[in-house]
Amino acid sequence: MTLASYIALTRFGLGPLGGEQLSDVGGWARGQLMGVGMSPALSALPGSPEMIALRKALVQARRKEVGDMDATRKQLRQLYIADISARITHGATTRHPFAERMVLFWSNHFCVSVSKAKVMGLGGAYEREAIRPHVMGRFVDMLKAVVMHPAMLWYLDNDGSVGPDSPMGRKRKQGLNENLAREILELHTLGVDGGYSQQDVTRFAKVLTGWGVAQGKNIFQFRPPLHEPGAQEIMGVRYDGKGMAQGVEVLEALARHPATAKHIATKLARHFIADAPPAGAVAALAESYMAHDGDLRRVYATLMELPEAWRAEPAKMRSSYDLLIGALRLCGVPEMKAAPKQRQAWGIQSLQFLGGMPFTAPSPAGFGDTLADWSGPEAMLRRVEWAQNAARVLPVPKEVTGLAEAAMGPIMQPATREAIAAAGSPRAQLALLLACPEFQRR
Fold it and tell me: From the DSSP assignment, how many helices (H) and strands (E) are in the chain?
């Protein structure tokens, strides 16, 4: 395998499928920028309306003390596991791994967590409905889809936020909730150093009052009685729009702000290049973002042209999820199809053991994306133990040494090559391959 092929498949993709190699890296990269639909395994899963109906049944049962609340909770949990299993299968088999990597990136950027009871069962639907359709589109469209989705509205408590001077606020004295407004500014758009003030957070929170969750097919609704009336000034700009239009206007302005371009560029450069992203790469990505009005496909194309992104050293540590998907892809598609239920169960168990189950990040900031976030002493011991278990569960290729060369040849150190070759059995060789430093990085 050439160095360029390794970088393309592992850094921009999710790892090679078996002994996959690229003869035309540039052609592969261009092809990866084309749109791709969801696999049948993902598209067949229930959507948000079904999840919301289940939650409604759970709430009604709790209030009336009728029905089986435990059964409803169990059903929501089972649907969450089904979502993650389908997601793992898709990642392990897709021929469009760059698009899938970007789904994972943006899903983490716009983090929601099932640790909040209301969000349980909604994580996968949120990703399919608000993230996947927009990964090759415009950032502003993804931003609006995310903010209007029930998972985000419930996760950050906006569904119950009431404008102090709204009809409902004057009547019931319900409070304003600033969580969603703050995280949009700090995490989703401008960044913590984006130039906004606490006053801007409060005013933006007022703009977002009335944005809530609906029952039925239309999962978003704007409720005028909860909305704070009047113009709001945010970061020196006056927004005179009325009702929901005011909030849309603010989101569109935030998406086009230079601070947002820099924030997004920094996170992309950190994910693909280094924990401390090079200033030149960040500047190039931010310039591309601004020049193309947040067209993400154009920004990705700029990323793939950056010399820093093609450096030989695998500077990034694989997350637990990335590591699992890389191992499944390495061991090949046909074997995975032979025993999907067993493999899916093991995939879930792997993430529970390693940490990093999707939609369980400890805060709205999502999972970390640096070496320190994934390489603590206990975490590394668990990875070694997991590699040993993986070698017992996954189908073992006949020629593990050849697979190692195909997967990591350009970066594999002599000591690693010698250790794998000297291992006593193919399973021991596979365990060493999955645990070696080269495979743990990308």
Answer: 25, 4
Residues 209 and 164: their CA atoms lie apart, in Å, by: 10
On average, the pLDDT of the chain sits at: 92
Q: Tell me the CB-side half-sphere exposure of residue 55, using CA atoms within 13 A.
A: 20
The reply to whether 380 falls in a domain is: yes
Domain housing 417: 320-355+375-440
Tokens of 128: 């399919």
Report the C-alpha gap between 80 and 84 in whole angstroms. Answer: 6
pLDDT level of residue 345 (50, 70, 90 thresholds): confident
Predicted local confidence at residue 63, as pLDDT: 63
Residue 105 lies in a domain: yes
Are residues 351 and 303 part of one domain? no
Residues 145, 285 share a domain: yes
Number of folded domains that form the chain? 3
Task: Please indicate, yes or no, if residue 26 is contained in any of the structural domains.
Answer: no
Residues 201 and 289 in one domain: no
pTM of the model: 0.95
Instruction: Please state, in angstroms and rounded to a whole number, the distance separating the CA atoms of residues 347 and 16.
Output: 18
Considering the domain architecture, whether residues 95 and 125 belong to the same structural domain is answered as yes
Asked if residue 158 lies in contact with residue 174, where contact means CB atoms within 8 angstroms, the answer is no
DSSP string, 203-228: HHHHHTTTEEE-SSS--EEE-GGGSP
Query: Could you write out the DSSP letters of every residue in 346-413?
Result: HHHHHHHHHS--TT--SSTT-S--SHHHH--HHHHHHHHHHHHHHHHHSPPPS-HHHHHHHHHTTT--
Rounded-to-integer distance, Cα 235 and Cα 250, Å? 10
Integer Cα distance of 263 and 223 in angstroms: 32
